[in-house]
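Retry 2 of 3 after timeout on previous attempt. Resubmitting structure tokens to design endpoint.
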């Protein structure tokens, strides 16, 4: 009988551990989503600031809010694509270090797609 009680206690402890692990995992996921959102917002804000500054430096050209928003979104999306592809290139070489050659390969592979993506986004915002 004593063994059965110990087994029940062990099962309860296991359930508590599982609940603690689930809660911890949930909090980790939540923190990761918050971190990603913060990074995304920073990238968007910084890319918009840079674009506005660059536009002003060139004969006082202004950047519409719609164009700034599209540009910020494109910078973020391209950054995600870049990170994913660079990691894949390094992994393909069985390496954990991203090299200059990985970056060059990304640029060669994506330059046409990037231009099309920018033009499509600008068309959607009626900027061009």
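Retry 2 succeeded. Sequence:
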């Amino acid at each position: 009988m004593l063994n059965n009680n110990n087994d029940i206690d062990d099962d309860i402890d296991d359930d508590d551990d599982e609940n603690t692990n689930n809660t911890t995992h949930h909090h980790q996921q939540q923190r990761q989503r918050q971190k990603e959102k913060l990074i995304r917002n920073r990238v968007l804000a910084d890319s918009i600031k840079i674009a506005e500054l660059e536009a002003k430096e060139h004969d006082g050209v202004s950047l519409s809010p719609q164009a700034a928003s599209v540009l910020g979104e494109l910078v973020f999306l391209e950054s995600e694509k870049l990170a994913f592809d660079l990691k894949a290139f390094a992994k393909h070489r069985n390496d954990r270090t991203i090299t200059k050659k990985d970056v060059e390969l990304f640029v060669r592979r994506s330059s046409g797609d990037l231009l099309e993506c920018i033009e499509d986004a600008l068309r959607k915002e009626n900027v061009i």
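Attempt log closed. Residues 91 and 97 are 9 Å apart (CA to CA).
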